[in-house]
Amino acid sequence: MSGKPRVVIVGGGFAGLYAARTFAKAQVEVLLIDRNNFHTFTPLLYQVATCALDPSSIAYPLRTIFRKHDNVAFLMGTVTDIDTVEKHIIVETAAGPVIEPYSHLIVATGTVTNYFGQAAIEKHGFGLKNLDDAVILRNHILSLFERAAWVNDTGVRDALTTLVVVGGGPTGIETAGALYELYNYVLKNEYDSVSPKMRARVILLEALPQLLGPYPERLQKAAKKQLESLGVEVMLNAMVSDVEPDTIYLKDGRSIRTHTLVWSAGVKTSPLVQKLGVELQKGGRVPVEPNMRIVGQPDIYAVGDIAYLLDEEDKPYPQLIPVAKQQGILAANNILNAMAGKPMSTFSYSDRGIMATIGRSRAVAWIFYRIQLTGFLAWLAWLFLHLVALLGFRNRLSVFISWIWNYLTYDRSVRLILDTSKDNQPLKEMADETT
Amino acid sequence: MSGKPRVVIVGGGFAGLYAARTFAKAQVEVLLIDRNNFHTFTPLLYQVATCALDPSSIAYPLRTIFRKHDNVAFLMGTVTDIDTVEKHIIVETAAGPVIEPYSHLIVATGTVTNYFGQAAIEKHGFGLKNLDDAVILRNHILSLFERAAWVNDTGVRDALTTLVVVGGGPTGIETAGALYELYNYVLKNEYDSVSPKMRARVILLEALPQLLGPYPERLQKAAKKQLESLGVEVMLNAMVSDVEPDTIYLKDGRSIRTHTLVWSAGVKTSPLVQKLGVELQKGGRVPVEPNMRIVGQPDIYAVGDIAYLLDEEDKPYPQLIPVAKQQGILAANNILNAMAGKPMSTFSYSDRGIMATIGRSRAVAWIFYRIQLTGFLAWLAWLFLHLVALLGFRNRLSVFISWIWNYLTYDRSVRLILDTSKDNQPLKEMADETT
Questions:
Q1: What is the largest CA-CA distance in chain B?
Q2: CB-CB: which of A124, A135, A432 is closest to B426?
Q3: Residue B233: pLDDT above 80?
């Protein structure tokens, strides 16, 4: 180890990634830790789950990103504890636990699915927060359709092809729209020669009286209308009360026969934040000073979805990728400022608005919180901004073109039921015995 | 069910696929059964295992292939029994066992890895016969490198980065070459800033005194020389006697410290052939008449790797894709001939030669068993023939171009450790309770 200060960054999502990049060529040693060996472009997870994209199209090896940054090391593992007195962390790796010291720590571990303590939903539902989730959901849906093709009982068959998405935020809307398109443009054509009566339903449940909470009413209504014009059934004021393997029960007494509950109705911060020794705010978020330093912890910074910081209107900054990126960069710069004895900068969010896509030529966008776009124009804006984001993150124009190609040709080419769990024994056998 | 004859085809590999295609538009009802929902372009499996290709690039949904063939139905499942008296089969599906009657049956279930009864090799070794195998091997190798980067003990670290391939046939040679290239062109650059002493070894073990058994001596030697020029260590006359989690023991007393044994040293026919009620030949192969009908079973045909048929020189036809394709087509045509009261045709192999690739610009080819090519020319021939084969099988020029692009740019972009086994419970929970 060199004599340079050692910054440890926990989490290779957008916040952690942009923090690490900011240290390139600086006189610090950086250790980036993530439980995966890749960064995930999460806005397109739903496209992996709905067979439009390969997992590798939205994941990029972290070591490749930092191949030319000699001061950035990568460790694959899960941070299980933080010792703020000794200034080190404990990382659970495939080779057992290791201790890594830090001079400065950036925690950027993001959120996990929040089932709000409802064990039945957690047991039977499918999250959509990471690449594993997306592949598992893809396998599940394709398997159900294979089974449905050979079932004669109408009720049983319809339950197999009824897909329910819970949560009327951007992820829920995008997923519901993409699921219906997967059925309507692809699966329908491949099953109808055998089972002409096979049909799918995609139902979007939202507990509130409207979709897309933070959007203006006009866009909320446009989103609902566009979803319905596509074929998705939208049910508002619909709260899930219980789930069984083949049924979802709603609070108002209704029920839906289905084997697929995609839960996009909430997130909570990753468990690691409980090791920070501070009182957490709403959603388990970590209170930070405007310079991104954790309140009461001079050498620890929290950035991205786990950070709790109020804007000028006393509302917490939203858990969005642009916030995460900007906070990651700010925390890294403030660590460099502190080392150089310079004053720290405070967070000021450069916000270009919010948008959600619904399906082919369908989207809503609220640009700079002034311009409200719906339909094809909003969809073009969504495409353009994701193109820019994906390119900024890595130079993979060809992937994006192939994605647009898929999208325009109505094809979904990645329809593999690929479950690598069964034969996994050798992996564990040969991997568990070195230390 | 219609009144038409019902042909059941077991196996969606090359033999089964080409048989099913031959029935397109014929007055028969076809049921194609496979345990996967996709056909696998097996010659490129080693490229998935070595991070060069996405799984979806070499797998194509069977339903898509037969989308326009109204007389071909698909059932995902594993055939567990054949009742030749009642003329039906038992298929284990996700919804339980189902019985499917046939008027004619084509068995095309191919081969599985043969560990020759050596339990230790089966437990610790990695096969490379299907897409699951390829993804499991990819995950395993990438995980070992992540661990090796943080190990200080030289012996332990070298064991993690020593990759052993057993079997000097085409698969073993291709895999060993591709593994060394993965290390040499990609992984080396990503780990050396952190662990400058990290180095990998790729060792190819062959029990016989030469590689590529059926090839002429000149090509056998050229293959060995090319592998060694790449960086692969070739050990001939090397038989594995035992395997432990971190060591391979050879019969001659030598041992290799490693956590990775890729077993490409043998295949045997799938277990289903034991249900055919015939005496099996060498390698568990099923004796067939020259019209591909199983000896003593008038309505059952065996095609591809499971079929045992002698050529003019009294040698069994090799277990190769061109043989499988041609036998699948012949069996289908002979069933149509039988139905029409026409005489059956007999198998005559149109054989253009054999080839094996070793790595970038390295290959050996024996074209029409007359022209012997090595090096760049052989590699170009390999590329060209696989391009033609892939295009014949589906129109996916773009995938092939992207693959050549990867190959030429020395990149391996699919380096994800993606294990979907852990959270798989919901899939099983919600899938197991319908019938």
A1: 74
A2: A124
A3: yes
Is A291:A347 a contact under the CB 8 Å cutoff? yes
- List pLDDT tens digits, range A115-169: 999 999 999 999 999 999 999 999 999 999 999 988 889 999 999 999 999 999 9
Q: Which amino acid does the sequence have at A384?
A: F
Calculate how close chain A gets to B123, using CA atoms only, in Å. Answer: 6
Please measure the distance between the N-terminal and C-terminal CA atoms of chain B and give it in whole angstroms: 21
pLDDT tens digit string along A73-118? Answer: 999 999 999 999 999 999 999 889 999 999 999 999 999 999 999 9
List all residues of chain A from 94 to 123 with a beta carbon under 8 Å from chain B: 94-95, 98, 123
Q: Which fold has domain A119-264?
A: FAD/NAD(P)-binding domain (3.50.50)
Return all residues near B124 (Cβ < 8 A) that are at least 6 apart.
Answer: A426, A429, A430, B243, B244, B245, B261
Portion 6-45 of A in contact with B at CB < 8 A? 36-38
Look up tokens 């083949």; give the residue.
Answer: A246
Domain B119-265+353-409, what fold?
A: FAD/NAD(P)-binding domain (3.50.50)
Interface predicted TM-score (ipTM) of this complex, two decimals: 0.88
Question: What does the block give as tokens for A200?
Answer: 């799918």
Amino acid code (one letter) for A59 = A
- Cα dihedral B23, B25, B28, B33 in deg (nearest 10): 50
What is the least distance, in Å, from the CA of B300 to any CA of chain A?
A: 24
- E strand or H helix at B363: strand B362-367
Yes or no: is domain A6-113+267-339 CATH 3.50.50.60?
yes
For B241-261, the pLDDT digits (tens) are 999 999 999 999 999 999 999
Burial class (CB in 10 A: 0-12, 13-18, 19+), A117: exposed
Is A174 an annotated catalytic residue?
Answer: yes
- Reduce the DSSP state of residue A276 to 3 states and report it: helix
Partners of residue A100 in chain B, C-beta under 8 Å? none
Contacts of A125 in chain B (CB under 8 A): 426
Nearest to B2 by CA among B66, B71, B68: B71
How far apart (Å, rounded) are the C-alpha atoms in residues A190 and B58?
20
